[in-house]
Model the fold of this input.
Amino acid sequence: MKPIRTPFTATPPHGSAETALDAERQLALEYLADAWTAAEGDGVEPEALAHAALFAALATLVQEHGEAGAAELVAGLSLRIEHGEYSLDKTLQ
Done:
């Protein structure tokens, strides 16, 4: 069995000081990391987990903000991904 490594060991990218929302997001990320690790332990492939997580996240955003609001948020993700905001193995200086 290959070693299980959760992909969520880094703090989500935020430029602001610690706030209640940042703390809640960190707690949510920890819950997701636990579930991710458990699913990988049961043999679910990381790519399948990623697709399922994206579907769940996008469906929730559409429910909370409507289709236009969710689409606007997602439109900005491409540039943020290209700038490394979601690269967990990136060295910060």
